[in-house]
Design a protein that fits this description.
Structural class: alpha+beta
Strand content: 5-15%
Radius of gyration: 25 Å
Shape: globular
Strand order of the largest sheet: 4-5-6-10-7
Helix content: 40-55%
Largest sheet: 5 strands, mixed
Amino acid sequence: MRIGRVFLTTVRVGGTFSASRYHSFPPRPIAPAAKFVVRRCNLSVSIRSSSMAVPAGVLVNWDLTKCTPSQLEEDTVKLLAELQQRIDNIGAIPLQQATYHNVVQPLDALNRDLRTNGAILDMPQHCVEDKLVRDASSKAEEKMEEFDVAVNMRADVFERILHVQETGMDELGAEQKRFVNKLIVKGKRYGLHLSSDVQKQIKELKTKESKLAIKFSSNLNEDDTKLYFTKEQLVGLPHDIMNELSVGSDGKLEVTIKYNHLFPVMKNCTNPETRKAMVTAANRKCMKENTPILEELIELRHLLATILCFPTHAAFILDDRMAKTPDTVATFLTDLQGKLGELVEQEKAVMLAYKEEECKESGLECNGELDLWDMRYYMDMVEKKKYAVDHNVLREYFPMPRVLTGMFDVYQQLLSVKFDKVDNPPVWHKDVLMYKVNDTDSGELMGYFFLDLHPRAGKYSHAAVFGLQQHCKLEDASTQVAVCAMLCNFSMPTADKPALLEHSEVETLFHEFGHVMHHICSRAEVALFSGTSVSRDFIEAPSQMLENWVWEKEPLALMSEHYKSKEPIPDELLLKLAASRAANAGMVNMRQVALSSFDQAIHTQQSADTASEYARIHKQITGFAAIPDTNMPASFGHLGGGYDAQYYGYLWSEVFSMDMFETRFSGKVMDGKVGREYRDIILARGNSIDAKDILVQFLGREPNNKAFLRSKGLKC
């Protein structure tokens, strides 16, 4: 993940028997034997009258325009009552009669129905304009997460899974055996092998943790911070962005700290005081509300880890990840920090020289150092001066309609899939698009995806993919197709101009769509292993690998044209863009090291003063002092969204993504044969096989970090 795309994907931590429904990961499990199948609850939210037909294979109606708070409340009660009865039935099966088919598969069905029907109850908080509906949706999520915890803590159900492991494994296939074994491991991570008193304590703590994490994320979604500037204070901002700003009562222009305003101001505005005001506001976002929540979460997580006999929360989390231990992560980050150090100093020297020159020309006093609000501005200047890449010129070649069409062309050719727009789709907002996906060769229906691309009040404020319905193989050999939604916040089109994307935004779009394809292309038979349910420190690798396409000439030609003249990007500009890829690599990646190190630090402690800890680590690693009276971690959504002690995974995954790209795709980025192998081995397998094993199969050898280091401009 590159600077400027701070929040690419968010998740809530999944459970043991009941895997979390929240966002993209992990997917919903498969259906059980026929007598347990209840594939769709008759929820009023999803079956109300609508002029929009629900496409074949989609289990709920996503037209939320008439959704009401009372519907959400009633449907949550109804859904959980039904599922409670089903989990009680599983727990009542005589122990000696417990089998995969009457215990494990029914658990899958319960998971699937909780997640499919639950998605329509908790999704509105991220996408519906009515605040009362968003609040009701958030409360629905709290109740469902509480139910999740309760199901995960069912010792009677765990005992029956143990019986299946001990007596019924011989008749199972490899994937089914893996599923049973994973459930046992997860059960122990919930303390189900400990005393009933300890289990009660764990249940209380996990319920509290879940509620705090939901509140942390909800506060970020609801933030509506606005600043007001004169046109003179915004000099340098592109005209189309300036023109879309609302005018306040005093005649000043209204600027939010959402990405579609924040980044253009930080990169383009020549007034350092304006940039300082913006970055200060951004780093104070939800500080009052979320700082105490985050610090309580840190204490709760540590206590839970120690109860489960782990020294720290990081040790608990990493025990179930590729990295395995905090020491491994610390070594990885420290080694990368050391390798980046010299490069960072060289980059800073160039930027400081630019700052001194600009201050002299404009008559401003120069303090002789780079400030936090200087970073994006002078990084952009490096690309303009050193690489002759002007992103304000370049964005004119990336109108949203053309980018989408070209991106679809790339993915269709590469992965042997076909996209068709759904007419009059059931959607939650008029701007949302829906597409059907079929396999090119067989014509098989693979799933659907929604695109919700532009900002609006109360909408999820970053970029992420939300899993709404997971691919799964049913007991009758039929298939439940995948459905997911991509939410982003790209600038709106205007009356005389389409939405224009910066190249970094094209990269974001390509990355997130990679997660969409990971969902859609899943072919794991056990749906708990479907698509993006892979280890959290591998989860970003497939999408990161696909980011490389936005730096290659052939895909760029498909995704670009001047919004007025329809001319392609000149070859000269493409060459300059490609040459600029390593620009600022030191500072970009050192910031990621700092954020990852902070995440590890607070989750290897019993408690933390997050503002002072962040200021210390950020200064130590990046050299930039935090702004007084701010606390960036209060708006660091990953910490409450399922990436706790796992933010390092963005850099860790990049080791694999660059190895895959350089080894298999370098020089043949539109090779459909290799692309199909990528789909069948990396995307389709999900978590049915260990990530390390599918990497070895795709690469033909053990993975290494050579391509990763080269991509950062570092020696191997």
